[in-house]
Design brief:
heterodimer; A: 372 residues; alpha/beta; Rossmann fold; 2 domains; 20% strand; disordered N terminus; B: 307 residues; mainly alpha; two-stranded antiparallel ribbon; 2 strands; 69% helix
């Protein structure tokens, strides 16, 4: 374990954790002379799924275009299989920078390999990297996509006639809960009586259950839906067929629902990946804890669909402008969860970079659903 | 919104879900029923289902006709069936093992050829509104039925009747119950079994096309999530009776719809348990029905697991 301390000091890292800002990329480190990294990407599903994996693959494509050597493997399950994939990329193809992109790759798989290969840099999407606990050649990056989900909620709140919104979610992990809560807060800012009904399907890709959940919600009077599953294609298409509205997630699904697509929360990974790769090329260690939102260009919103009213556009655009300039606080007290407990005390505001938000374990008041 | 369904939404959703979700189970189990009646087990139907889904979607996308897609899926399924049938006709070949190999081959080929079809949007099959505008819209949605479901529903009693009352049916059953008896009356078991396996693949292919061309209605590598395998298990507790396959498929479809239906009305505690309902149901039904005395009732005697 001593080997990891050879890499060097990271003063910037500390500020990076505190600020959680994209600007914390890199500090002078072990790769003094600088060499273009060989970059390995691992996806949990197919890379053209209109969703999570496609968003990452678009980032990988941007790296390729910038002249980096990129290795990709799709459909790697969150098991030892990912360790084997990473080892073969490292040993056979000489990868020096690894991006295992799925949530379940982080602990224990990526951490185990990082200990075995201290000279290789590992960066994980979404993991909660902790300086005290995790090796220096590991790290995590993520975008504050809940900002876009809040905007989704604002538009949904304007569009919904019944005040009932639906959310098809895969698993109750902090990122998903944060999206559900942000979406609900956005909707409640427009219509205080709005509720979000959540259905957890239990898996990142479970098309039949996603379609079934969408139908059940619409049967219950839900008229605007969004989701957090690997591929929103099924949800968006099913809702379009039933005449309901949808807000997209991960990537732009507007072509799938020309009538009902309102707007969407999209990743913009190209920026993040280029920052990492260029840092390594310049001989710096890529950032260990990288976060950013709309302002930093980590996430973006889809163009408004035809069903979005003028009032909704105006309000969403105004909030977006606030997010882009001085920062907009989504989670502020007093805030209760849907069991009546106070989760954020009155007068307290949790800014986007607040780490407490990354271990969110509650659904706020207005969400119909339970985690367990 | 007028007429909030509230808790009534649950039985409605389970019923509607049963109709929507059960069709692939129905087709695969009918297909497996034919195959097993002739004395072969084809575990590869999961692969056939997935390949059928891919082939159906691809053909529908390329030709613009979803019905051509269904046909292509059925033909592709038959080819897999013929392959299974022929390999199993070689001496000392175990049909269960071949089935597993074909399951992997089918899914693998489907993923390989299916790559370019994950993104595009293919034309899908239409649904019929059986309520004829008499029901409020939300109930009407539950009454919107795909013609494939009706075909499956009609096929079950026809098959049951055919097994009992036609010469072909008798031949299939005889081959399945005793290859020697069939030989004694001058019927070669091999071609009958190959044909029965091909017919099984034909049905399973259609089941796959339903998945990709109607519900959920897009091609995706996680599309089947084991439905083909569950349908094979379903044949066993349907007692190799095609009509019972319909009920079994219904129960499975309804159980699959239970989780989302309950969550949509706000019953959210323990949704993992509800989502596991179809699998729990398999265990319970197996445990109840497979008591030592009656477990083999109705089972074709030549079936691999009976020998």
């Amino acid at each position: 374990m001593d080997a990891q301390f050879l890499i060097g000091r990271r003063q910037l890292l500390k500020s990076g954790v505190a600020l959680g800002a994209a600007t914390a990329l890199g500090s002078p480190g072990a790769f003094a002379q600088g060499k273009a990294p060989v970059i390995g990407f691992i996806y949990v599903g197919p890379k053209d799924d209109y969703g999570y994996n496609q968003a990452h693959a678009e980032g990988a494509a941007a790296l390729k275009k910038a002249g980096f050597k990129v290795l990709e493997e799709e459909k790697v399950p969150e098991t030892v299989a990912v360790e084997k994939s990473m080892e073969s990329m490292i040993n056979l193809d000489g990868a020096t920078l690894m991006f295992p992109t799925s949530f379940g790759y982080f602990d224990p798989h990526m951490l185990k390999l990082a200990a075995k290969y201290p000279k290789i840099e590992f960066r994980h999407c979404g993991g909660l990297w902790n300086e005290a606990k995790h090796a220096k050649n590991t790290g995590s990056y993520f975008g504050y996509i809940d900002e876009c989900q809040y905007l989704n909620g604002v538009v949904a709140g304007h569009t919904s006639k019944s005040g009932k919104l639906g959310f098809i979610a895969a698993k109750p992990i902090p990122q998903v809960l944060r999206n559900i809560n942000a979406f609900t807060l956005g909707a409640k800012s427009v219509n205080p009586k709005a509720t979000t009904q959540v259905i957890f399907t239990g898996d990142w890709a479970f098309p039949v259950k996603e379609a079934e959940g969408t139908n059940s919600l619409i049967d219950q009077g839900v008229d605007v839906l969004t989701c957090h599953v690997d591929s929103p294609k099924v949800v968006v298409e099913t809702a379009e067929r039933r005449g309901a509205f949808t807000c997209g997630y991960h990537a732009n699904q507007a072509p799938l629902a020309p009538k009902g697509y309102l707007t969407g929360a999209e990743w913009n990974w190209s920026k993040v990946y280029l920052d990492f790769a260029n840092a390594m090329k310049a001989g710096k260690t890529p950032g260990n804890f990288v976060r950013g939102g709309l302002k930093e260009g980590f996430v973006k919103t889809s163009a408004y669909g035809p069903a979005v009213s003028e009032a909704a556009r105006k309000q969403a655009d105004a909030i977006k402008a606030e997010m882009m300039s001085k920062g907009f606080v989504i989670f502020k007290g007093p805030l209760k969860d849907n069991k009546g407990n106070e989760v954020i005390a009155g007068g307290k505001a949790l800014g986007q970079t607040d780490l407490a938000l990354e271990s969110m374990n509650y659904l706020i008041d207005g969400v119909v659903g339970a985690i367990g | 919104m007028d007429g909030d369904l509230g808790l009534w939404g649950v039985p409605l959703a389970i019923f509607a879900g049963a109709i929507r979700v059960s069709t692939p189970f129905l087709f695969v189990s009918l297909g497996e029923c034919i195959t097993e009646k002739a004395g072969r087990i084809n575990l590869g139907l999961e692969g056939t289902l997935v390949f059928g889904a891919m082939a159906g979607y691809a053909i529908s996308y390329n030709t613009g006709s979803p019905w051509l897609g269904v046909l292509a899926a059925a033909l592709a399924g038959s080819l897999f069936g013929v392959l299974h049938g022929l390999i199993c006709s070689l001496p000392k070949v175990n049909d269960v093992a071949v089935g597993i190999a074909l399951m992997l081959l089918g899914t693998g080929l489907a993923f390989f050829f299916g790559k370019p079809y994950i993104q595009p949007k293919a034309p899908i099959l239409p649904g019929f509104d059986l309520s004829f505008g008499l029901l409020p819209p939300r109930l009407a949605e539950a009454a919107t039925i795909n013609p494939l479901f009706l075909i499956g529903l009609a096929a079950a009693p026809i098959l049951a009747w055919g097994f009992r009352n036609t010469r072909t049916g008798l031949v299939v059953r005889m081959v399945g119950d005793s290859g020697d008896a069939a030989k004694a009356v001058g019927i070669a078991a091999m071609p009958v079994r190959v044909a029965a396996t091909a017919a099984g693949g034909f049905f399973a292919g259609i089941g796959g096309a339903f998945l990709s061309l109607y519900y959920p209605g897009s091609w995706n590598e996680a599309l089947s999530s084991g439905q083909g395998l569950m349908a094979v298990a379903l044949v066993i507790f349907a007692r190799w009776n095609p009509v019972a396959c319909v009920w079994a498929a219904f129960v499975f479809g309804g159980a699959g719809a239970l989780g989302p239906a309950l969550q949509s009305v706000g019953v959210t505690q323990g949704y993992y348990l509800f989502n596991a309902a179809p699998y729990l149901l398999t265990l319970v039904i197996m445990a109840v029905m497979c008591s030592r005395k009656q477990s083999l009732a109705g089972m074709p005697a030549e079936l691999g697991i009976a020998r």
